[in-house]
Amino acid sequence: MSGATAPQRWASRSRWPPGLGLAALTAVAGLGLGSLGALLWQARGVHPAALWQEPWLAAVLRFTLWQATLSTLLAVGLAVPVALALARRPRFPGRGLLLRAMELSLVLPTLIGLFGLVAVHGRRGWAAPLWEGLVGSESGYLYGLSGIVLAHVFYNLPLAARLMLQALETAPAAHWRLASQLGLTRATIWRTLEWPCLAPLLPRLAALIFTLCFTSFAIVMTLGGGPRSSTLEVALYQALKFDHDLALAALLALTQLTICLSLWLLALSRGGAPSLVVGSVSLPTGGRWRRRDALGVSRVTDAFWLTALAALLLPPLAAVVLAGLAGLPELPRQASLWAAAARSLIMALGAAAGALTLSLSLLTGSRWLKARRHGAAALLMEGGGQLILVIPALVLGTGLFLLLRPTLGSGWQGYGLVVLVNAFMALPFAMQVVRGALPGLSAPEERLADQFGIRGRVRLRWLVWPRLRRPLALALAYAMTLSLGDFSVIALFGSPSAPTLPMLLYQQLGGYRWQGAAATALLLLALVVLVFVLLGLWTRRPPRYPWNRFAREERHARVP
Amino acid sequence: MLECRDLIFHYDRFEPGETPDFSFSFRLAPGECLSVAGPSGAGKSTLLGLLAGFLEPASGSLAWQGEDLLARPPWERGITTVFQEHNLFDQLPVWLNVGLGLSPDMRLTPAQQARVREGLAEVGLAGLHDRLPAELSGGQRQRVALLRALLRGSRILLLDEPFSGLDEATREGLWALVRRQKAAGAAVLLVSHDRDDIEALAERRAWLESGRLRGDASAQPRGS
Amino acid sequence: MSSKVHAAGASLAALLAAGSLQADETLTVYTYDSFVSEWGPGPGIEAAFEARCGDCDLEFVALPGGVDILQRLRLEGEGTRADLVLGLDMNLMAEARALDLMAPHGADLAPLDLPIDWSDETFLPYDWGHFAFVYDTEQLETPPGSFAELLEAPEEVKVILQGPRTSVTGQGLMLWIKKVYGDRAPEVWARLNERVLAVTNGWSQAYFSLFMNGEAPMVLSYATSPAYHMAVEETDRYQAAEFEEGHYLQVETAAMLRTTEQPELARDFLAFILTPDFQRHIPLGNVMNPAIDLGDERPQVFDRLIEPESLTFTPEEVRAHRREWIREWLNASVR
Question: Nearest by CB to C209, which of A409, A495, A512?
Answer without folding.
Answer: A512
